[in-house]
Amino acid sequence: MEEVHENSQKKAGQGRRPTVIQYILDTDVLTLIQEGHPEISAKFLQQPPDSMAITVLSVEEQLSGWYAQLRKAKRPERLAWAYRRLAGV
């Protein structure tokens, strides 16, 4: 049984201990970071990358919002904005 546990650890993390996620960013905070909000972005950049995560719900909410913007876009600049967001995914 111990051998199975060792093998699963090596596959999952190459023998490293798993990282503990300290922050889960919600959709609002994620959007502020993407838009370059100065205070939120500064705090975000001070954290180790492996201490943060987003949920699949945030991904779905953002994708749904960008698709909705594509469908509603009447002006070329708004359409370009939505495509840039999707391209950055």
Poorly predicted regions: 1-9
Shape: elongated
- Overall radius of gyration: 18 Å
Count, helices = 5
Decide which structural class fits the backbone.
Answer: mainly alpha
The count of strands amounts to 2
Supply the number of structural domains: 2
- Order of strands side by side in the largest beta sheet? 1-2
Can you give the mean pLDDT? 82
Compressed to H and E, one letter per element, the order equals HEHHEHH
In short:
The chain has 89 residues and is mainly alpha-helical.
SSE blueprint and pairings:
Blueprint: H1 2-13, E1 23-25, H2 27-34, H3 38-45, E2 52-54, H4 56-72, H5 76-87
Parallel strand pairs: 1-2
Helix pairs in contact: 2-3, 4-5
Features of this protein?
89 residues, mainly alpha, 2 domains, two-stranded parallel sheet, elongated
Describe this structure in words.
There is one protein chain. By secondary structure, this protein is mainly α. It has 2 domains: 19-54, no CATH class; 56-89. It is 64% helix and 7% strand. The protein has 5 helices and 2 strands, in the order αβααβαα. Strands 1-2 form a two-stranded parallel sheet. Helix 4 runs antiparallel to helix 5 (76-87). The longest helix has 17 residues, at 56-72. The chain is elongated, with a radius of gyration of 18 Å. Mean pLDDT is 82; it is low at 1-9.
